[in-house]
Amino acid sequence: MSAKPILILQMQRMGDLILSFPLFLWLQREHPGHPIWVVGEPRFYEALLPVSPAATYFPWTATEQIRQTAFTLCVNLSHERAAAALAGEVRAERRVGPVQSTSGVRRIHGPWHLYRAGLVHANRHNRFHWADLNALDCVPLSRIAATRWPEPRTCLGDRRRIGLFLGASEPAKRPTPRFWADLARELLHRDLRPILLGGPAERDMAAKVQKQIGHSVLNLADRLTLAQLADLGQSLELLVTPDTGPMHLAAWTGLRVLNLSLGPVNPWETGPYQPGHHVLQARISCAGCWGCTHPKHPGAHHEARHATHRCHDHFLPRRVAQLVHALADPDGRGEARPRTANGNLFLSAKTPQGLYRLNRLLPESATRSSRNMLDEFWSMFWGSSFGLWERDKPLAAWTDLTRAFPDLAETFIRFLFGFHRKLRQASDETFWSQGPPMLRPLYSQAHLILQNDDFSWKSERQILTMTEELLRIVAGEKNL
């Protein structure tokens, strides 16, 4: 008799499905012999079958066999109500993620899935990647850490073919046509060969970009299937792309990526997951937002003057082309020292624990900011709270923060002491947003934990225990 299958519900977009591929692999290794079944959107998974890990896919419209099968594990990676309802209907020994009972009550199972749900509009200090968060409730950290991803391909052929993927899921997440046209001209000036790429949604934009370039460039927008795009990637030196599904396809299939991370995206959450890819992000305080709340800067640079968001102004075609030239010519025949204007250049990597990390490459002289150190502290605290490591890691991160920014640490402690009084207002729907930004992770998680258990005594005690642990850690430096 064959082993019970594992069910994964992935109702989201193409990029989300590709970021689920590592989970498929880890579950196969953790549960050998248990088939992986995936319920998803046919328009996405059918195109990705040639590059997907071994799995049996089912459309959302044909789940009768799913309901009749017993599973060893059900992992719901979707936030759709239909997915939560299906997760509640199937027979599974264990469930992870949103689950809706037959009576209509919806719960989120697993601390890491609950943590991710709490990041909505409150992700400023998050440093956990979506691909890792998919797995942390059901895959041991040791399994994740043992994974060795291949380095992306480099030094192919004449090194001149550069893919430009033009689109993203929304305009705020992609550069303007003017930017792409200017970038293509700059690349041509450096004897590189840009190729315009995109799906059906980018066809008109690609035609506009091609016309603005004023030179003959290859336009393959809306002319390739995803499988053909992956094949084309075998001959490209680099793909320049916003945060979009084809970016994750490129990283998964070994094509080196330069991710232009602009608009309401956080590269720590959805950047190219495999090590060895580059991410360029504006060096402004609101970078990595969940949704833009800042008006357009009135003094935009002429190269980006048609942009609609402040962060777009920091992506200048000439500087990006300089960076592309340097990446395409690692032996140094290109421009000696690429500058990134007001941007930060990162390289995707792994922490010693095996989780996703972005290592800063440029500017080389940049010192760690208070935000970066708060990011590190909160990630260490949540990892300790959910059992990934011991409390020495958040304690060390807090010690570093206190020594570098003592006034900020004092303010943090003062606000933390006021949290218990604020907790009385937790029934207010806006409670998660009432805390100062530096404590927003605590407010958001506490609010969701309480809501997830109907403000029970058990959930209140969990919040108090979590807050007491946080106080013990900060008291290690302040002798409270």
Which terms summarize this structure?
15% strand; 20 helices; alpha/beta; Rossmann fold; six-stranded mixed β-sheet; 16 strands; 480 residues; eight-stranded mixed β-sheet
Question: Mind explaining what this structure looks like?
Answer:
With 480 residues, the protein is an alpha/beta fold. The protein folds into 3 domains: 6-145, Glycogen Phosphorylase B (Rossmann fold), CATH 3.40.50; 161-362, Rossmann fold (3-Layer(aba) Sandwich); 370-478, no CATH class. The chain contains 20 helices and 16 strands. The chain has an 8-stranded mixed sheet, with helices on both faces. The longest helix is centred in the C-terminal third of the chain and has 22 residues, at 457-478.
